[in-house]
């Protein structure tokens, strides 16, 4: 173990999110344009390089690793990578290995993910209506995702559903989604739509449905009990007293959570983003590729990057514009 990673604001960095591919089998309207140009395969870190990167972060104090994308389960041979990371769980250095997925490939992978040591997963699901699901994901099919959820639960994986709150789209599903999750013993987290990427004609301000409103509407039917702050995460949680369902809110816009940020994000090409809402990044790939047998330059590059972690993001819709917008797509950094 080397000295822990501490940023300039005295936040310890113990959580790494890694986007292992920019590709996806869906084209969600808030995430991707209909016709995306993806990175050439040669630009991607190989699975061995991803292993070396992640293992270096683990050695430097990262205890939680979340694999994301694009859709992580469409990366070829991704199980090899999960299986390799499980050695850090076995050694105790890594406390949690997890992923965020659209659920489309879970039927195929759930058992093997559990065998690799994954215990909890996040699945993104914005609607339970087949036609609306096809519309918001453009390419997705709801029944396939629902079968994926079943397979994951049968394999023993605990599921949290993430739903993006979209005005005029899933407002009417606030209670049905909560009930669906309660019946299946899944937590549910609502996410405010963020101004990421240039998606052509998408109307970001029009899509934005404040979670303050989501919460107020829930409170009309349920008694909400605030749960204590989670450590470092952006979500705030409540429990619905009547159903004991736990519901989270990720509110980058109506509530700023940066002061407790413990995470950084790496793209599939080895760029390290110190903040989801800022353009600054450090390219770790040269330190990795130019020194195939020596991790010291990579460690130094990581430490230097953490030394530049900004205090927070600048997203703001309050002037009826998507201020603070960043140009890259969410699929680049993995959300
Ligand atoms: N493909 C996987 C999935 O959908 O779960 C993992 C990657 S996806 C980029 C990660 C998360 O980012 C998803 O929950 C998705 O809903 C969310 N997301 C994508 N674009 C977003 C945006 N503009 N604002 C808020 N959340 C967004
Ligand atoms: Fe793919 Fe996830 Fe983006 Fe949807 S949100 S397009 S599933 S990466």
From TrEMBL:
Report the cofactor remark: Binds 2 [4Fe-4S] clusters. Binds 1 [4Fe-4S] cluster coordinated with 3 cysteines and an exchangeable S-adenosyl-L-methionine and 1 [4Fe-4S] cluster coordinated with 3 cysteines and the GTP-derived substrate.
Q: Give positions of region: Disordered.
A: 313-335
UniProt enzyme class: lyase
Q: Does the keyword Iron apply?
A: yes
Q: Which parts of the sequence bind [4Fe-4S] cluster 1? A: 24, 28, 31
Listed SMART domains: Elp3
- Residues binding [4Fe-4S] cluster 2, per UniProt: 258, 261, 275
Which reaction is recorded as catalysed by this protein? Answer: GTP + AH2 + S-adenosyl-L-methionine = (8S)-3',8-cyclo-7,8-dihydroguanosine 5'-triphosphate + 5'-deoxyadenosine + L-methionine + A + H(+)
Oligomer status and interactors: Monomer and homodimer.
Q: Which HAMAP family match?
A: MoaA_B (MF_01225_B)
The family note in this entry says: Belongs to the radical SAM superfamily. MoaA family.
Name this polypeptide is given: GTP 3',8-cyclase
What is the species of this protein?
A: Pseudooceanicola albus
Please state the gene responsible for encoding this protein.
moaA
